[in-house]
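hey can u check if this looks right to u? its 168 residues, i copy pasted from the old doc so theres a chance i mangled smth
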Amino acid sequence: MLDALVQGGSLASDLVARTSNTLVVQEIVRLSLSPAFLLAAIGAVMNVMMARVIWVADRIERLEARIAAGEALERRRELRVLHRRRRLAQRAVMLSTAAALTICVVIALLFVSAFITPQIGTLTALAWIATMALLIGGLVLFVAETLVAARGHRAHEAGEDTGAGQPD
């Protein structure tokens, strides 16, 4: 098969020549490990974020059903806080997903760079910077969501919520 690629044309032979050196491929794999570990970490954080989004969405559904039934009208303030938390958490997930996608682009660019003559280091660096910016944005929104949750919990415990003594 390699013979067919080499005889097929200059592009194929150039590609085979550039990647035939095991050390070059090993170096590319080594360079891609850091972004791959970052991708795994982003996935773990997103798992936590999604668990919070699901919990908040479920709580919103339960409260809206109770309010619609006229049982928990005093919980409207909590509902507003939950809607804010959901919005923050969803945005955090979206930015983290975008960060995961751009880190995949970084890994792809690292491998593509071995196959092409033009230098794409600047493009790879820009993709890495975009990944970091998106990840920072997602984490900031996640922190904001947890702060809103903590603030709401403190208000609930202090009895500021008129329904503080009622079971859910």
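The two ends are 67 Å apart (CA to CA).
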